[in-house]
Amino acid sequence: MTDPLARIADALDRLAPPPPPAADPMAHPAYVWDGTSLRPVRAFAPQPLDRLKGIDRNKAVLHDNFARLASGVAAQDALLWGARGTGKSALVKSVVGALQAEGQAIALIEVVTDRLDTLPRLFARIADQPRAYAIFLDDLGFDAAGEARALRSLLEGGAEARPANARLVVTSNRRHLMPRDIAEQDSAINPRDSIDDQLALADRFGLSLGFHALDQDGYLAIVAGYAAAHGLTFEPADAIQWATQRGSRSGRVAWHYVTELAGRAGKTI
After folding, report:
1. Membrane-crossing residues (predicted)?
2. Which residues form the domain of 247?
3. Does the global pTM surpass 0.85?
């Protein structure tokens, strides 16, 4: 007779199969690091760089920086900060996609931001690979000063700093990565110490690029670019009304509007 405990163990194994093997860090254009292993991004299809409007200087600077990284020469860690929906995350992905199209050996690794403590494990995984990596921390903010100190150590000066073939690129709505309410940081003996930690972290990024709210012409230019790329037509007054109802003019709002246009026209995008 089969051992009842063995049958229970087999049933549990079927309910919770072992995780899939870690992805080959040389095989895919983009990954997610979940704190334990690399998973390939299922469909990495960033917007073409020329479709991102109103941020030409930021496009050129970030592209040049990560082209250097891909070429094996000195490159900076980058902080992209500013208003919501202004293209920070889209630019990171588009720059990596453009470099890959140019034949550069670089990949994007997006890190789940509540697993920053596992970054040394990721660095060990990729350090010896003949490929460059943009380590992407999207929409980063901190609730405790200790997290800021940990990332600061990884950026520069710590025993487990990131390897030469990897640089961090961080997006944040706030230039200095400040917590929304310093007073809530119970672990800080002196709030001034906590503020200094946040400023010291921002100072560790050699490249800091600001993104600002769009004016009406800039917003309409983005809508026009997206609409043309997908064979759609639009009325400027309708696009403006869409943004007004949402209280914001941004690349994200422009994309949502073009998605609406496509739906009205019975198209997919």
Report:
1. none
2. 216-264
3. no
